[in-house]
Amino acid sequence: MDVRLPMTTAGICLALLMGGCSPGDEKHVAKLEEQTATFEQSLDAISDPKLKDAITELGGSLLLLERAQLKLDDIAPHTEYGADALAVLKHYPTPQALVDTFINGLFVLHKDASSDYLTDLQPVFPFNLNIPGGFLFPHGIEWRSVTLSNKRVIAYQPEWSETDPGIQLSPSSSNVTNPDDLTVTYPFIDGLNVDKKSLPQPVSLQGEVEVIAPRRLYSFDLTHKDVGQTRTHDNLSVKLLKLEKNYAEVEVSNSLPLAPEVAETRINPLIVQARDASGQYLVRAGAINESPEQVAFYRKQLAQLQQQKSWSDTLEKQLGDDQQAFEKAHPRRYNKVYFHGPIETLEVSVLDFSAATVTRKTLDLPIRTFNPHTTAKAVQPLDLPVVVYDDLAANWLKGADLTQEQLKAGVRIHQSVEEPSAARIEFSHRRTFNDELLGDELNPGVSPVTFFTEKRGGKLDEPIELPPEAYQVDPLQATITYDLNLFPETPAIAVGSMPLFLATIAKQSHDAKSLPKGLAIKDNTLVVDLKAFPANEWRFFVKDDSGHYLKQMLSVSHDASAEGPALLGVHYFYGHPTRVETYQRTDLTTVQYGFEVKLDKAPVDEAAP
Length: 609
Description:
By secondary structure, this protein is an alpha+beta fold. It is 18% helix and 36% strand. The longest helix is centred in the first third of the chain and has 25 residues, at 49-73.
């Protein structure tokens, strides 16, 4: 939850404002809801649509900001560890080397869509763009066209047209998790069966990419001793305003102006990270990017807008001038960042955009087809001229040593009683590497559960006698579903045992020159004999000579004919492996998780007596 004003439309603002879990301070929540109702009512009296839009956006954003602040202040105390957000940059000697890797590591996959009239194209980036904060540097890609197998070039259009009778290239509407995906749409002819193989296929994708690299990155390491102090390095300064148990407030400034290349670009040069006493990075819980002075300024602007009868060019100019004057008088960038866990040290990193390097490249990328399961005899090459490391692998692989106590400690219990005939208790835990190797032969055993009424003081009373159809336990999905209409008395507590599963995992490490039979390294691939190393029992991670794990690009399985290879798994990496780590499940244990859950109450007017 990173909140920065001004937000988008107030429709989104108010939806977020009214939704979600209520913070603990009920008085503040009630006051906020009252403010929201008053604000919404005031909008009805505004007739000028432009003025109404401006007030709606700014006022809704301020209310959302206040709601976000309440939620962040009410974070439940728990520690959660994450990865170093700057790890990717630390693998490359210069920011420009990271830019070159970003551009040269891009490739495009051909993916079959559900319809014979659609073909999906998936640009694959070497770095994850969907993480909070995304790629470190400002960047953009403009797709221009796709070239088909019949040499025809189809221009890119920003959205699919229902009236266009020809072949179209447009953004995909079916994959919201990959917003960069594209779709080639062929004309649909009602009543005519089309053989997809007869249609001209996309063979290359054209476009242009631009990435802006900063002059440098500099990091300040701060502790409680630095509160109130300003630390300076050349043109960069950081002031630690406050450092509390789980949040910090900082101000950052750059005494040099932004480079002309980024003067009109929205950038976030500030990366704030925290570690606890163990030295591990804490996961960010959210941030507020507006200082109290900024919020007061926006409130003043809102009050000024609410006094107007209509929108005008003069008013728009005045608002813009006031904004520029405020920013000039307050050049420091403010951040209030919350973390999941107690802060011991703070790492404030600043991307220095007082100078910048703009890299632009025209793209003409071949479209590659890699079916997850193929009968091809030969291994298709995919060796790109870049090296990318998997900075999450080391932490992920800690799950290979997961203990029963750690597994139980990670269980979270959720309840749902909105539908009294299908009330649910769900047991979940954060997925770990151990879950990958559980296989599919799970034996949950008996999963008993008993429902009790409750005495005064919250203690157990008598167990409730129930017909078998009153509840159902699904141990593999870790859920209990019960029908309150079939309960003779209202249950207050459920007591029982839910099975969890724990794999015993054996790890081995092999040099590329002495791999066991059934494993082979060829250029940037690891080829696995799946008969010797069944996929449901084994996992493989590779390193190069740097000692870092290489990031996997994709993997496919070859199930060829008798003349070809029997059954192979092929793993492609950004870089050339020199060492292979194998992880094998050698045993599987069922761990009983005993529970006593105080049940949420169903709505009174719907629950059975």
